[in-house]
Amino acid sequence: MKLNTVLTRTLGVLMLLFIFFSCEDDIQGIGSGLVDESNFTSGSETYPVVAYSERFFDSVGVQTNGFGSGALGFYLDSIYGTTKASTLSQVDLSVYNSTFGTNPVIDSVVFEMPYFSTQGTNSDNETIYRLDSVYGSDPIKLTAFRSYYFLNSNSTPDLENGAVYYSDDIAEFNGVEGDTIFSETFTPSNDPFVAVVPADTEDQDDTRTTLSPRLRLRLDQNSYGETYWQTNILDRGGDDELFNANAFRNYFRGIYLKAEPVENTGSYFLFDKSNTNIVIYYKNGAEASRRSASLTLSFSGGSVIGYENDFNASIKAELTDIDKENGEENLYLKGGQGSMAVIELFGPDDNNDGIPDDLAFMRTEQRLIREANLEFFVDQDKIASFAGASVSEPERIYIYNLETNQPLVDFSADATAGSTGAITAVGTTHLGPLTRTETGEGISYKIRITEYLKRLLDENNDAPVTKLGVVVSQNLLSTATGSIEGKSTSDIPNRVPYSSIISNRGTILYGSSESVPETKRLKLKVFYSEASN
Fold first, then answer.
1. DSSP label at residue 204
2. Cα 48 from Cα 51, distance rounded (Å)
3. What is the mean pLDDT of each run of 10 residues along the chain (533 residues)?
4. CA 235 from centroid of its chain's CA atoms
5. Where is 12: in which H helix or E strand?
6. Are 358 and 369 within 8 A, CB to CB?
7. What is the value of pTM for the model shown?
8. Nearest of 457, 347, 361, 442 to residue 409 by alpha carbon
9. What is the DSSP letter of 407?
């Protein structure tokens, strides 16, 4: 009995082992499950893609309202040409329906526009500032006008959707260059601004406050004087025009900040609208007991950025008659009202089942996907042919789903969240930075799309999206998108990321055409493991 029991148990164990090792060869899941690497081999394969450019400049605008930032200045791109950026913004009052007290009289009027900057210390432990999003070191001319053009908050005629304004709209607006508020020629500087408020009495010290770098102007001391603000604001206290925000925006419709080059050079910068304002300091009250007060006109309302491009004619010719079927030799990426790239993966769907044929075949290959990437090589020869000078190449490019206009799933997997849950950093593996030579020229950007490809390979995904957009990016944390003028929701592409619209830099990459050298050609590269037979 004991011998039979032992034999029975032994046979049972052998049967279980047989079943276990037999099942091990039957791999069903792609990219999932625990595996014994000793039973797998690794490999890689490349797949052709179709890539081409889409241009927006000249006749197609991009949405420039809804930003928290404004753009101003003159930017010379040695590849593409020049761009002038100006900003039209509504302004709001800090106090509505006020009479401003008895006999209000202006003391001073101050315009402030902080630059984006970061604070640090030097070797002497002194506070220093580094400017952010400021390009160039030459002076520009900035003129501020009171605008008589009314910016709508909602689109007509249904008034249910928010208004959309494009980068080429301001040139068509009537009345934006109304009353001149100031005109100043300056160069953005990283020097802090020290504000001094004189003491009320001789036995008191002046109040000194150090502010971050900014453009700060006394509007009451320029040729336009304090009379304008006294007449148009303080003397209107208690009137209907200053009753609430809607009434005021209809009365004082906005301020147009127009930037112009100085001798065909200049600087270009982004500014924080939320901290840009005009402060009217005044005194009121009885003659014997006058008090100091202030009223702020903040640039917190709706706004639109206007771009004026004067681009290289040769660049325009390159972006004419684009071959969307076979792909192009070069991809032209330019921020602002510029251009982007469209990437089509896996080719046609000849049997019209909703799955590209190459993707359908790839699904039949029982492979564990280890990594998938697109490597975009910079065409330095093409850049040199246009630029003939040093080029400020963008540090990052951004890829997104052209059907949903959302980032790829790899973006979230690569993001770093702070204590509040907000994304604070991205781009360590998904959106690789520009690799450079020892002398600084760009080599390539590697974009990893591993998780995105795994979802395409999921057999339950019966409507895979295989068209992607690629743009330069000013800020990888910003993934919102703006409309492309004249495009409907069924068009692809129909929206472009704000981070590209607010950017100014450009580059030229190798595309997918067969004329591109094999080592530089854009391809989908996949690294995988598969079971050994």
1. S
2. 10
3. 43 41 40 53 92 91 92 94 96 95 94 93 89 93 96 68 91 94 95 78 76 93 86 94 95 97 95 94 90 94 95 92 94 96 91 88 90 97 87 92 95 71 66 92 95 94 93 88 94 95 95 96 94 69
4. 42
5. helix 2-24
6. no
7. 0.86
8. 457
9. B
